[in-house]
Amino acid sequence: MLARFILVAFFLILTACSRQAPVEATGQAGVPAPAAGVAGAAITETASPAAPVDAAAASPVVVYSSRQEYLIKPLFDRFTEETGIEVQLQTGEDGPLIARLEAEGEGTFADVLYTVDAGNLWAAANKGLLQPLHSKVLEANIPAHLRDPQDLWSGLSVRARTIVYSTERVDPAELSTYEGLADPKWKGKLCLRTSKKVYNMSLVATMIDRLGVEATEAAVRGWVDNLATRVFSSDNLLIQAIAAGQCDVGIVNTYYLGQEQQQNSAIPVKLFWANQQESGVHVNISGAGITAHSHNVAGATRLLEWLSTDEPQHMFSELNLEYPANPAIEPVDLVKSWGEFKQDTLNVETAGRLQTEAVMLMDRADYR
Question: Is 162 helix (H, G, I), strand (E, B) or coil?
């Protein structure tokens, strides 16, 4: 009991100190004009958040986030510059951040949990760590399949996980679906990232929902049978392996290919949009919710609403080559160059709800 008391006291001291470290403002980024979004998403007019109406909105907003600081601090700096509301950031890994929120309970200083993958947000919501958003702005700007059905969190940017292939050794006409990569014609030609990464857990979870357990397990076993080499620790290494001839096809988040293309525009690897004749490409999110014990709900709501509007949505694409979650906003030119695609409109909360079943399935299939 004494050890538990000391641990909770340490968390409270750490977060209290964090509130004393204000975020410095940065310069304004360019504001894009609204434009067409990704195919398969309804185009809506961007709604704007109302100005803060109570004194709480003038207080700092404390954000716990697993996103890398360089990807989100420019957004928070711009928000502070525009609204005068200070944002204080604490970063860490998803699991420990959620455990920290749980340990702090009512004593937390966190107003917002901002993380990647709907599975992590679902886990936080399932533990009672988030409260309903009650935002007409988010409802207007973010499609329903990218928001929690219980209104506990919202997507803020979109990442598509699809097939990549060698332009030197693969005819894209041979490609079709995720489950098609289990075909014996890909034996010794497939590369995969480890199943321990939440991105693959989420993909398999949505496959379970779409195909059922039996068909999904057959597909995953086929993937394992077709592996050219051991699984990789990152999507970047997987893409580099295809470029080097170690394998011919794989599955990655699109922005990783964008990162490689920024380093080498001639890299002989391209995207193939999976499942276009079926459910569409698997998509996931980075997103956020307001903590259950937030002391600044007004300021937190203002921040999340602002992040769904034109300029910050374009900045998401600019900073990490993601897709805006707001379908009225165009991504940057490199992302647009990959072409339009139909995205799966299955609610992304499936990634969390079926995550445990997906992990068990991958373990049975010997996908490590």
Answer: strand
Instruction: Output the DSSP codes for 274-306.
Output: TTTTTT-BEEEEEEEEEETT-S-HHHHHHHHHH
Say what the pTM is. Answer: 0.86
Contact 346, 279 (CB under 8 A): yes
Question: Which tokens hold the place of 362?
Answer: 């991958």
> Is-contact 347 144, C-beta < 8 A?
yes
Q: What is the CA radius of gyration of the chain?
A: 21
Greatest extent of the chain over all pairs of C-alpha atoms, in Å: 64
User: Which residue type occupies 109?
Assistant: F
Dihedrals phi, psi of 113, to nearest 5 degrees = -110, 120
Average pLDDT by stretches of 10, the chain with 368 residues: 42 40 33 36 57 60 96 97 96 96 97 96 97 98 98 98 98 98 98 97 98 98 98 98 98 98 98 98 98 97 98 97 98 98 98 97 98
Angle at the Cα of 37 (from 35 to 41), degrees rounded to 5?
140
For the record, the structure tokens of 73 come out as 């601090």
Rounded Cα distance between 197 and 234, Å, is 9
Residue-by-residue DSSP string for 174-224:
G---TGGGGSGGGTTTEE-B-TTSHHHHHHHHHHHHHH-HHHHHHHHHHHH
Going along the chain from its start, the domains and CATH numbers come out as 32-157+286-330 (3.40.190.10), 159-282+355-364 (3.40.190.10)
Q: Which residue has the tokens 């939440």?
A: 198
CB 328 within 8 A of CB 34: yes
Strand 323-324 with 154-166, pairing = antiparallel
Structure tokens belonging to residue 108: 């937390």
C-alpha 321, offset from chain centre = 12
The one-letter code for the residue type at 206 is T
Q: Are strands 61-65 and 112-116 parallel, antiparallel or unpaired?
A: parallel
- Spatial separation of the C-alpha atoms in residues 82 and 213, rounded to whole Å: 49
Give Cα 94 distance to the centre of its chain. 12
Q: Is the separation of the CB atoms in 220 and 368 below 8 Å?
A: no
